[in-house]
Specification:
- Two copies of one chain form a homodimer.
- By secondary structure, chain A is mostly helical.
- Chain A folds into three domains: 108 residues, MgtE N-terminal domain-like (MgtE N-terminal fold), CATH 1.25.60.10; 119 residues, CBS-domain (Roll); 171 residues, Tetracycline Repressor, domain 2.
- Chain A contains 21 helices and six strands.
- Chain A has a three-stranded mixed sheet. A three-stranded mixed sheet of chain A has the order 4-5-6.
- In chain A, helix 4 crosses helix 6, helix 14 runs parallel beside helix 21 and helix 15 runs parallel beside helix 21.
- Chain A is elongated.
- Chain A starts with 5 loop residues before the first helix and ends with a helix.
- Chains A and B meet through helix 2, helix 11, helix 12, helix 13 and helix 14 of A and helix 2, helix 11, helix 12, helix 13 and helix 14 of B.
Chain lengths: 431, 431
């Protein structure tokens, strides 16, 4: 498609919107991206770059001339500008900042100063502010004179003489109010967002209160910017992807179409961790080598108990991680939740112990063997419930992301406990 | 907290917004929810019910008097009304519909007729429509007279004499335009959403184009409603949860605070499926019983190869599922992706084969054993890449949700292939 007639491709690209071009680039393998990029109209560069994911964007920026990059950056909204700069290597972003004009550099540096994953990092600074005493008709005349409003403006902000936020006035209210109403009386007491609030919390607030936008204030209640729902949507999607990807041991910026060697590198860490835990489980089995060499049937059944514990534990783990992300699980109900998951582990233990004991007793014609595996299953199910519920809470207290490491640690626990319980009981009762 | 002084609790509840009350209910165990519910102001019932998840909401509705439910339902926006009714048992929702007044019943039945997970199901019908020739000042006067606009209105819709959608006009444009401008000339050619479009696709469009709202049209391009971003946010969150939960074998409506027996039931299916696949893996090992009884060391190492294959395969699986959800992976680049993942499997195979061979050769002082496990690892890594990339595509063609069953099928494949490769090669070379 993309190799022969560049003229045709260029024409096609001209008919696409920036976000569609971004989708096309994301869905292309990395080699083709570099062929496509120069065919895009330079005016669209900033809009397309905004929409790309980190990996893909940086790959393209690496191939651009510095002055082209600066041009594209200067056209971006503050939040996109800040995000793009923050993902570039320090030296590159410093060079770019130096070549930008004064005003753009200042807004970029301000945003960068708040640190990633805060409200200040994702906010825009293009707020329209009003004084409390002005009447609606004056404001409407002013807006008409201005001729344009920043994208996604649904609320104007009222500030007092010290620039402190008094509240927001919805545009729909301005339209429906009588012309001689002072804007003051239209204020809806909107909650404001502190500039250092974590972005996940910002997203939760937007979701809970169905906001379209919200004002951001500094520690003195001065209005410093606003956050709009479209940025929040990106955060929600990214958070969700982060959980899903990290539970599978992937970097969430991993690009489906990255070159083979790069992709392999990115997945190595997790495979390495898994090899280590698999060797640990093997070492536990190794302690029972004498038992295993006497009863080969144990070797055959050795994976069943750990595997069931792993699944049960991961169910609990996932549920608790989700509950914590939604704000449902807090320190206050943690103990109750733990006892609930223990009870489920106990109940699960009974159900699956009876079932597996029956299957094994029938298959291997050995009642004692069935009893041994049932006992081990019982122990491991309880351990799984306990570990699945407590691990995320412990990890959060230690400031470790439970989605990232929770599953490995849990599986290691259920493997070790499962093998110990099964082979230990077998050594004790069957030899 | 909630047991003794109901007066105090009632006072506290009065100071909370509906969404905060909903959060409180969601974070309470099910027994306490029924204690709290009667303490809430009846006027807030509809707003609180809207915010609750399916399981929690139905639990509460079950305890309410029918006329109270009807009152609450009639106050809801169309989309929430339709959603609530659709999750109730058929007989209950029919009874409720019968007691509702004519107008509310009609809007509910219309919404229900579109079927779940479509644009029609999640849309609201409270659009403001304009004729193309009217001037801006007339519209502004009309809106002021009306005095109020539906929640989250950012765009008014222009329809022709046959009620066909001509396009949308942003409120911000109305404010900034000259009073004598005909509304026609302010139309931004907005894309419209067909009423039967799948909601996931609607969410992707909103995300890609950064919309705040979009008009919904039937097959004749008649305007039938609008979808707003706050509903889309819910869909995005639900979709993400669905993937995360179903990969762990959980129902995505699973309620963290449900009673023990109910929770245990909900998790049983997955544990049952896992028991079956674990027994299958055991059956494969069983075929090599003679080998295992002769060399106990094989029993000890038997889990390493399947486990590494499972992790590598799940990485690929997750990445491809995400790529499909984002629209990056299509039939056109599927073959390329498959060959890429095969190449990664091959490269991973080499890396981990060499490593595991060295570890085992050192640990067990047996070079041949190292070679055997390396060969099995190689085979299984390639199988994992192949299965991880092709399974989601095959499942999508068969209309099965890959997030739900993909991981089990994949793990079964990597277990069986891994055990076969390891024990088979060992039987052949070591005995």
């Amino acid at each position: 498609l993309e190799d022969d007639n560049t003229g045709l491709v260029k024409e096609m690209l001209q008919q696409l919107q920036p976000c569609d071009i971004a989708l096309l680039l994301e869905s292309s393998r990395s080699r083709n991206r570099l062929v496509l990029w120069p065919l895009i109209e330079p005016e669209l560069y900033s809009d397309v770059l905004e929409e790309l994911s980190e990996d893909v964007r940086n790959g393209i920026i690496n191939t651009m001339l510095p002055e082209k990059i600066t041009d594209a950056l200067e056209e971006m909204d503050t939040d996109d500008l800040v995000e793009t700069l923050s993902t570039l290597p320090e030296s590159v972003s410093q060079d770019l900042l130096a070549t930008m004009d004064e005003q753009d550099r200042q807004r970029a540096e301000l945003g960068l100063s708040y640190g990633e994953e805060t409200a200040g990092f994702i906010m825009n600074t293009d707020t329209i502010t009003l004084r409390p005493k002005i009447n609606v008709d004056v404001i409407l005349r002013y807006l008409r004179l201005k001729g344009e409003m920043p994208e996604h403006t649904d609320t104007l902000y009222v500030v007092d003489s010290e620039d402190k936020l008094m509240g927001g006035v919805a545009i729909t209210k301005l339209i429906t109010a009588a012309p001689d109403t002072p804007v003051e009386s239209l204020i809806k007491d909107s909650i404001s967002i502190p500039v250092d609030m974590e972005d996940g919390e910002v997203a939760n607030l937007f979701e809970r209160y169905n906001w379209l936008s919200a004002p951001v204030v500094d520690s003195n209640n001065h209005l410093v910017g606003r956050i709009t729902i479209d940025d929040v949507v990106d955060i929600i999607r990214e958070d969700a992807e982060h959980s899903m990807m990290s539970m599978a041991g992937l970097d969430d910026e991993e690009d489906t179409f990255a070159p083979v060697v790069k992709s392999t590198q990115r997945r190595t860490l997790w495979l390495g961790v898994n090899l280590f835990t698999a060797l640990m489980a093997a070492a536990v089995s190794d302690m029972f080598e004498a038992t295993l060499s006497e009863l080969a049937v144990l070797a055959i059944l050795n994976t069943i108990v750990p595997s069931m514990g792993g699944v049960a534990g991961n169910q609990t783990l996932t549920l608790v991680i989700r509950g914590m992300a939604l704000g449902h699980v807090t320190a206050r109900n943690a103990r109750w939740l733990l006892s609930k998951e223990l009870a489920i582990g106990f109940l699960n233990g009974i159900i699956w112990s009876v079932l597996i004991a029956s299957v094994i007793a029938l298959w291997k014609q050995d009642f004692m063997l069935g009893a041994v595996i049932a006992f081990a299953m019982m122990i491991n199910m309880i351990a799984a419930g306990l570990a699945g519920a407590s691990l995320p809470m412990i990890m959060r207290r230690l400031n470790i992301d439970p989605a990232l490491a929770g599953s490995v640690i849990l599986t290691t626990i259920t493997d070790v406990v499962g093998i110990f319980a099964f082979l230990g009981t077998a050594t004790w009762l069957l030899l």
